[in-house]
Amino acid sequence: MEQLFEETGLSSVKPIRDIVYERLRKAILEGKIKPGERIIEKEYADKLNISRTPVREALRKLEIEGFVKYIPRKGVVVKGFSFKDIIEIYEIRKSLESLAVKHAIQNITDEEVEKLKTLVEKAEEAEKMRKFEEVFEIANEFHQNILITSSMPRLKNMINTLQEYLERFRRVTMSKDSRRLSALKEHRDILNAIIDRDVQKAEELVHKHIESSKKVFFEEFKVDLK
After folding, report:
1. What pTM does this model have?
2. The domain spanning residue 138 has which CATH number?
3. What is the mean pLDDT of each run of 10 residues along the chain (226 residues)?
């Protein structure tokens, strides 16, 4: 816990409960607080020199989102993610990202198309230079630009929440040469469908892209999807 709240920005304009929520959520997603580990209100409140109320409010929000659960006589405990949870997240992503690309095609400008082209080219060049972390970051930026272009901020927030759930798992799949190469090709195919303003094709390609990612993930962890 010592390093979880370094440079928290408690003096910022954000409510303290939001800062506590964001830091706890980030720590859980990054594995700094492990599944099954207790989160004790008093300890975090004392560490931050604040009352227990904002910590309690942050934990309540995390419970609603499924990050933690309350266990009688034990308190608040971090939940793990089951393979069933991950399958559900991938399925929701397919539906939401299909909706995002549909609206992106309806709204996209020539300038925004050029930005997507540049990102695809940069990712391909980074792959040739074996700059794998850069490939991952540019791939994220490609998806973010589609979400921004969709002009649906609530949808964008929902998808980003799901992406954060899968962050660690996506890094596992993108560490494989075969998956990075196929993902880059899928991005170029999606880009071409966007350029052609072909909504149906773009939606099909988004489905294929996410389904491929899911398949690689479960192959990596030796899980039979049948």
Report:
1. 0.74
2. 1.20.120.530
3. 51 80 84 89 89 94 88 90 85 96 97 98 97 94 97 95 79 85 97 98 97 87 58
